[in-house]
Amino acid sequence: MTTVDLPLLPLGRGTDRGSERGVECPGDLPAASDPDLVARARAAKEALGERVFVLGHHYQRDEVIQFADVTGDSFKLARDAAGRPDAEFIVFCGVHFMAESADILTAPHQQVVLPDLAAGCSMADMARLPQVEAAWRALADAGVQDDVVPVTYMNSSADIKAFCGRNGGVVCTSSNAEVALEWAFEQKGAGSKVLFLPDQHLGRNTAVLQMGLSLDDCVVWNPLLPGGGLTEQQLRDARMILWKGHCSVHGRFSPDVVHELRATIPDVQILVHPECRHEVVLEADLVGSTEFIIKTVEAAPPGSTWAIGTELNLVQRLAKAHPEQRILFLDKDVCYCSTMNRIDLPHFVWAMESLVAGTVPNRIEVDPDTERDALVALQRMLDLPGKSHKD
Ligand code: SF4
């Protein structure tokens, strides 16, 4: 039986302390209009010195990124934090699953802080452990569970990573998804299947465009439907069982805008992230991870024109850093990642000043059992051959 476990709270209503969704920031948040916010953040950072290490995800606002000791994608940041064991506090300017990963990869004495607990990720929220366990049981009922290797994208909660660790699976990033899938398909011989969590688009784009599987090899498991909305025969026939999750930011890009841009700007190059829908990726000139997007723009000759399909804070930062190029956002509407944007200067100042005052606010702590199993899946990723592990 499928567990119907709606992960998302109605906007602005209700809280769930267990998952930290909708939990408000405790304490006195400085007013966003306070003209001294930058000076206060700077003073708090100076006061904490080497005791604090500030991580800034690429999709964060400039007002926060200016205080980051390092910037990067989620996996790089977690590894950077692990490389600074002298830092007592890791302030993660990103979203909840990233802070969990940092807690898993850092030493026990390091405390990870998320400046706003409402900074979740809609994609990660689309795969909850009870739902995934229900799907796993359905795979057993269909007689295929022994052939299935679960693979989860980095953008998933710690308990989903732990599920993969317990069940012979692996974590992947958008850079190494192909290598991770190759590894997964080798684990169970000829009839191997993959359950790919939680981003159907990264799973489909990797399987079809990089590994040569067909769209017919892929089925989509909908956790809100009995039996995932699939027959046992469909499960037996499939090679990729894609979880019905997506990124609400990357899912917005459409082939129509690509066509319009190509009609009006003939030399435009379309550069997108593999979290975009398959039909958008098919229309793109280049597809790759956040790091790939940054490196591609940095290496491009002056005068190049790019329309980029990824989070808007990053696209704007690239446009500012590369005035010699024409950089456009691949959407007509302004659309930031709303949860990434929860981390603003007032929350950052509040978190840093709390640390200075001797209180550790919004600590993200993964329980030891989950951490142990999640580390198994993360270690399998680190042991994959070849490609880098940046997403
Ligand atoms: S950009 Fe997408 S995947 Fe990244 S945090 Fe926002 S919703 Fe999640």
What does this structure look like?
InterPro entries: NadA, NadA_sf, Quinolinate_synth_A_type3. Belongs to the quinolinate synthase family. Type 3 subfamily. It catalyses: iminosuccinate + dihydroxyacetone phosphate = quinolinate + phosphate + 2 H2O + H(+). It comes from Nocardioides marinquilinus. By secondary structure, this protein is an alpha/beta fold. The protein folds into three domains: about 35-120 and about 340-365, 3-Layer(aba) Sandwich (Rossmann fold); about 125-250, Rossmann fold, CATH 3.40.50; about 250-330, Rossmann fold, CATH 3.40.50. About 40% of the residues lie in helices and about 15% in strands. The chain has 16 helices and 14 strands. The chain has a five-stranded mixed β-sheet, with helices on both faces. Helix 10 links the parallel strand 8 (about 220) and strand 9 (about 240-245). Helix 1 packs parallel to helix 15 (about 345-355), helix 3 (about 75-80) runs parallel beside helix 4 and helix 7 (about 160-165) crosses helix 16 (about 370-380). The longest helix has 15 residues, at about 370-380. The model is unreliable at about 1-15 and about 15-20 (pLDDT under 50). Bound molecules: iron/sulfur cluster. Iron/sulfur cluster binds near residues 59, 95, 123 and 247.
Assign the CATH topology of the largest domain: Rossmann fold
Structural class: alpha/beta
Q: What separation lies between the terminal Cα atoms?
A: 35 Å
Bound molecules: iron/sulfur cluster
What's the CATH class of the largest domain, please?
A: Alpha Beta
Give the overall shape, derived from the CA principal axes. globular
**Rg, alpha carbons:** 21 Å
Tally of helical segments: 16
How would you sum up the major sheet? 5 strands, mixed
Q: Segments where pLDDT lies below 50 for 5+ residues? A: 1-14, 17-21
Report the mean per-residue pLDDT as an integer.
91
Spell the H/E element sequence: HEHEHEHEHHEHEHEHEHEHEHEHEHEHEH
What's the helical proportion of residues? Answer: 25-40%
**Which strand-content bin applies to the residues?**
5-15%
Keywords: 4Fe-4S, Cytoplasm, Iron, Iron-sulfur, Metal-binding, Pyridine nucleotide biosynthesis, Transferase
Subcellular location: Cytoplasm
Pfam family, one: NadA
Protein name: Quinolinate synthase
